[in-house]
Each structure stands twice: as structure tokens, then as C-alpha cells.
Amino acid sequence: MLLEIEGLNSHYGRIHALKSASLTVREGELVALVGANGAGKTTLLRTLSGVHPASSGRITFDGCDITRMKASRRVAEGVVQVPEGRQLFGPQSVEDNLRLGAYRRGSGKPDDDIDRLYEMFPVLKVKRDQPAGTLSGGQQQIVALGRALMAKPRLLLLDEPSMGLAPLLVAEIFDAVQRLKREGTTILLVEQNAHAALAIADRGYVIETGEIVLSDSGAALLSNERVRQAYLGL
Ligand code: ATP
């Protein structure tokens, strides 16, 4: 097991945003966490990456208890998040944005990694010298994914990569996420777009008002009556 979250609680003042959540991710798996707006998906990711403190519970990453570890150390350990809303440096070129991803890593050969990224996502190579801010939303999301990959994640956390994108671009992003998985990246994908996320996930969890209420294989959740009614509009 690469990641094991057990009985995790998280608060914003008196708001109990995450209620005894438990979730696991194995090496090489693509796991989706789906739920409505405000269900607590982002809170789970923020608590996992260390930017928001856990009230109680335990997070174990590769056998180490990281529950109280500083966010920056978790990144160094390989827990890397692509934030919601991408947060690129708009005036900087695509390639500069990608290189910034290697900054925390400190070692290795960024040039080789950039070449590999250009192979995986040719659009990045085409646009390498353009200011990132001039790219379309979908292309910017791919830059954000690429930047996170430059940090050599052992666990990649994706927060709503399809947010604000037109349907065609959503398909492109989920295709990119699948490609990452095929290349061996372990991924925890947080999405409101339950259908697209569960369709590519090995396993999924459903979160409602801070509580994980269902977990199963992606395929089983897609055909689950409760999921179909509440999240797929079927
Ligand atoms: P979204 O898809 O909108 O990001 P979400 O499932 O990620 O939704 P969270 O953002 O984790 O949900 O929010 C969970 C709960 O915590 C909500 O009730 C929200 O109002 C509350 N919350 C989130 N951030 C804060 C904050 N900074 N201060 C107070 N309450 C917050």
C-alpha cells in the first residue's frame, strides 16, 4: 500500500469538513474521489498534502506516518499536488513553467525529463516558447500536469482537472491522466465529474458532507444505483 488514510478528521473552525475518512491507494493505481460541490474533496487533498492540519486520524505514506509532516517535506517525499485552478505563471513560457516543477527536486536531469514530457504531450513542445497564460484552458491544465510530473511524484494528487473546461477538452485531460497512469504514475484524482473520473479509475470513493459513503471498483460504482441517481443524472 502506498497511501493509507485512516479515520482522518479535518475542521475549519467549528465546521467539521472531513469526518473519519479512510482511503487507500496502491502503487500504480488510479483512484478517484468523487462527490458534489462542498462535499469535502478538496479538504481531503489539502489535509493529505499538509496545507491544512488534520484534527485526528492518520496518514501513512510508504510505511511512514506523515500526518504531522510539513507540506514541503511531503512534496520532497513525493506527494505532489496539481492545484485546482492550475496556478501557472502566466507571463512565463511553457518551458519555464515546466522547469519550475523540477525546482524542489534538486537533483536529476531536468532536460531529459522535459524531453520525455514533450514526447508524452506533443502540444507542450509546440507551445514551449509561448507565455503559459496565452494557452487554452485545456492546454494550461496539461502544462500544470507536466509541471507536477517534473517533481517526480510517487503519488500525484489531481484536484478537479476538468474544472471549467469544455467537453472536448475534458476528454483530452482525462486521456492525458490515463496516459500518466499507463506510464506508471500513481494517481489520486478528485472530481465532481463523476462519470469521467470513474470511467478511467481502478477504484473509486464517494464522499458526501465530509463522509466517505461508498467505495468500490470504478466500473462497479458507475453501475451503482445510488451513484447513477445522485451523480450521473441517470
Ligand atoms: P469543491 O468541489 O467546491 O471544491 P469540495 O468537495 O472540494 O468542493 P471542500 O472545499 O473540501 O469541498 O469543502 C468542504 C466543506 O468545508 C464545505 O462545507 C466548505 O464550505 C467548507 N470549507 C472549505 N474551505 C473552507 C474554509 N477555508 N473555511 C471555512 N469553511 C471551509
Automatic annotation (TrEMBL):
Domain ABC transporter intervals: 3-234
UniProt keyword list: Amino-acid transport, ATP-binding, Nucleotide-binding, Transport
Domain of life, source organism: Bacteria
Pfam families the record matches: ABC_tran (PF00005)
Coiled coil: none
GO biological process terms on file: L-amino acid transport
GO molecular function: ATP binding; ATP hydrolysis activity; branched-chain amino acid transmembrane transporter activity
Similarity annotation: Belongs to the ABC transporter superfamily.
PANTHER family assigned: HIGH-AFFINITY BRANCHED-CHAIN AMINO ACID TRANSPORT ATP-BINDING PROTEIN LIVF (PTHR43820)
Protein name: ABC transporter ATP-binding protein
Organism the protein comes from: Azospirillum lipoferum
Record lineage: Bacteria, Pseudomonadati, Pseudomonadota, Alphaproteobacteria, Rhodospirillales
